[in-house]
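One such shown below:

_____
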Amino acid sequence: MYNTSARRTNTSAAFPRRSALESAGARARPGPGRGADQMTAPPDIDGCTGVLLAGGRAERLGGIPKGLLAVAGEAIAARSVRLFRGLFGAALVVANDPAPYAALGVPVVADLVRGKGAPGGLHAALSAASTDWVFAAACDMPFLSREPIVALAALRAGADAVLVRTGGRLEPLHAFWSRACLPVLDRMVRSGDPSLRDLAAAVRTRVVEEAEWRTLDPAGRSLENANTPEDLLRLGLSADLPARGRGPV
């Protein structure tokens, strides 16, 4: 997974009221007969592309592409793309090696500025997406869920980015980023080695604090990711390739 370590970021946007977040979450709950990942209905969130950043080398996991780690027999990347198609109607993957993700049936784009980690991946995503917003997540997040994503999307008005803060740190890879961030990010990645938290400090960022976030994601499952063999055991993931019967999404 990309390294997003950085100092704690000060944000400029006002903190959303509890009623706004909870109301958005209530609207996100699937109705009767509609599963969280079902794709037959129109997209829930217009003007946005779901993006998986898949640039990490996973050295502690033997170099396996982490998007191919399996949860309940399905590759994390396939599960996430299926969710994104239902939510946004559009998805893409950022990976400098496209081969592991070619079967997903969505565009796979490479970093335009190499060696910049997650900021370079987001830069490539904002450059490639045809929408005004992207929702960026890491390829090793096995429990992305519709309801929290829709609730965050409802908080975009008047902001350039919407992020969650847990444990005193912003979570830039379960976040909405607008095209308005691109000129700032372009300057950053071409002139130095920024973090996504640096970007959040430089744009109009709306932050959802942990107490509010827990009303939607009490156990923090949406933000889980896999970095070590111990994480695979803890999260119930498999390093085996998913069964062929699942096929591309």
